[in-house]
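Reader question, answered in our methods column.
A reader sent in the components of a multi-part assembly and asked whether the whole thing could be modeled at once rather than chain by chain. We filled in our standard form and ran it. Here is what they sent:
COMPLEX SIZE: two components
ENTRIES:
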Amino acid sequence: MGRSVLPWRTRIEAELHALGPFRRALPVDEQMLLDVLLNDVRTRRAAGGMLPAHDPWNPLLLSMMLGLSQRIHKLELRLERLEGEAADD
Amino acid sequence: MIDGWLLDVHSDHAGQQMLAWLIDIDGVAHRCSVPWHPTLHVHGSARDLEQLLYWLQQPEIQQRFSIGGMRQKKARLALDTYEIHQVLEIDVLLHHRLKGLAQHIEARGNFHRFSLFSVDAHVAQRFLHEHDCVLFQYVRWDGEHLHSLQMMSENGENFPPFHIIRLSADFKHPKGFISHDDEPMRLEFESIQQEGFAPSPSFTMSREIHRSECESARSFLVKFQSIMNELDPDIVLTQGGDRHLFPALLSMAKQTNAPLHLGRTSDSLSVSKAAQTVHSYGQTLHRPASYLLQGRLHLDLNNSFIVREGGIVGLFELARHSRQSAQEISRLSPGSVISAIQMRVALDDGVLVPWKKNRPEDTKTALELLHADRGGLYLDSQPGLHGPVIELDFASLFPSIIASRNISPETLNCACCQPPRTGDSSGFVPLHPEVAEQEFRHRQLAEHLGSGLFPQTQSKALQVPGLNTHTCARTQGFLGRVVAPLIERRRQLKQLRRRPGDPYDLRQNALKWLLVTCFGYTGYRNARFGRIEAHEAICAWARDILLTTIELAHQSGWDVLHAIVDCVWLSDRLGRTAPEQHAAALEFAEQVSQIVGIPLEFEDIYTFIAFLPSRMHGAGSLTKYWGLGQNGFKIRGIEMRQHSSPPWIRNLQQTALTILAKESEINDRNIPSTRAQWDVLSWYRSEIHRLKKGELNLSEAILTRRVTKPLTDYRVKNLTYAALERARRRGYLVLPGTKIRYVVIDILASVSYDRVVLSEEIETSESSLGQPCIQHYRSLALRAIWAILAPFGWTETSIQSAGLQRSLLEFNPEFV
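And here is the structure of the entire assembly that came back:
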């Protein structure tokens, strides 16, 4: 008895670690963008763990997409605010 | 006829009878010899049992294993079946032959024809169960039997007026390596009145003897023995008695041929259980040999996790619940105690306790395994500094899930119930044991529950969230009946608690550890009443409860900054004042408690709390935080909480936090000001300066590491290896499971044992042994101060270069 399956955090950390060679071959600016995407996954580990799957890439990609959406949403709000200020002027 | 409090029960030296020790109202000890022997139960086919009976009746076998009477009997063999089976009951006249006989029968049945029961239930527990007595109870000895005169006290009264002495020693070589040949130079008997015990009539003045005042070692021991006889304590407390004092006394007694009877019988002092190295939860631990006394209790305060956590009153509380000798369980883990309580409840239920568990894990698909084999939920923290923040904790979450969701090996996926298709919480079982019992009686009466042959939909059967598992609505689970009284008892003790550390607090803390281990034991492969599906169901409910709490918190105007399995940290979103937040949090906790059926309690309100980022990637790290609450700092996971850290590092962090907590330095957003952060940096630099100037004492830099394997098994020559090698060269063997303490003096030294000096050398050396290694301790200090400043946005580079460095990845730009 005991745990048979690796904890979700360990599984995704192994997946992200496996991207190391891919990251090395990227230009430095793209490496930083990739790091942001990877941290999007890390900040949603608890949610990912609620979706156990054979293939960890489904929750992984969902987390990255959510991170991207969040940043787009922030930009939309900022744009809206700037447009509002411009219209007031 | 003798009336008195039952101090201890144990088998006599020959293993033929039980000795019960009673302390009467005048403090006089009475030895009561009770003829009693344990019995062994064997189950098998009728033919196999007959053949076994014939075999065991052979005179050679009867004599070899001290077999008394044998009889066929009917008994319940498992929790999940009420069927009565035929078993062979065998009386074993000499207690210590029990296990040998069990092994013989097992081999006789080719290890598959017989199932054995009642083999390793502790004899004291079985004796007390058969006599319906509890330790520390007021009992009557009528010359043949023990009779209880008082129900087990559950109202938080004091323990009986036992005479307690603290036995301490000064050794010839008080510092340096411990040696059993080291002679005690002074022994002190201090009669003490322990809080939580009624005043003893035998309370006496302290006594002490000096080796220098005795002609010889033998006369020193004779004097020691006479004082022991004169004081006649019921409980002897030592600090290191098992590891140092008793082995040294025994060594002296052997060398001088002096008699040494520290118990109340004529038996000489001897090792009761040899030292051993055990592996527990990934740790290698060393347990020194035990020196148990007959007729009085020897409690080694340095060799007892339970005493460390719950004091002597906590230990006695557990001894009472488990019906085991206090001096024996003081040297056990809480897991062994909960196992003993489970055995006690099984005995109460009339179920025989199996010797070896033989229940495999249920078959699952890979996807089912992925869903089921998960732990509790950790919500990723939002790294940075937050304030004010409220922490709410579920009280005894996992044991409460066991009790309220009726989770037990025999209630999971029962054949008699089907849960309703719609989610329905009406099946939660009340936590109070008596109310829960009534509830199940009511269910039996109110519902037409059928014969149990075919599953029927039961509105009170509970579906485990996210798993294809349910729990029974008809039968109250065994585990629930084990933990519910402990939960209720702990709740009562918490209500009686007047201050942290008082006897009620210690007793509830000891119970807390029992409850903590109870969950783990459901998944432990050797636990007799464990079942991995129960473990999985508990985790599934815990995740669901925490998610429900998080959802309700969002609806009630809170941000959930972090959540760890059974607690949440909330930050207000509605702009409420501090008193309003406090009131709202209490209301929210009450609401959640009603919905999930388990109390959610207010833990603390933090002026500010820092969740640390990961050193590797900057996302939130688990269980690393520090926060200023109503009663000072709560600190988890950082260096000052780690036993391995040297005092200098702990002091570095402690002082840094004190600087941050200065009231004048907390700004209107409830967080420490930038100036306070700079003060911390200055403090760090001044300490580094002290290190570089060589002003740091070696004793401030002692690192502690637990040794996990023998020196020869090390493949990497790390610092622990260097310390072990150095100890070996000085003739000192450090056993796996013990700790080694050393200071790094030159991390780059080519010879490994020159890299460190041992703390024992520092204690005894009169010449200089060098200075703490600047390179090594500077890196430790940098890590330590990073743990304090990182939540403000500082990096190791900025700490070193004394400036703030902006980056794209900064997680808390408002402090920049």
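What stands out: Chain A has a mean pLDDT of 90. Residues 5 and 84 of chain A are 52 Å apart (CA to CA).
Send us your own complexes using the same form.
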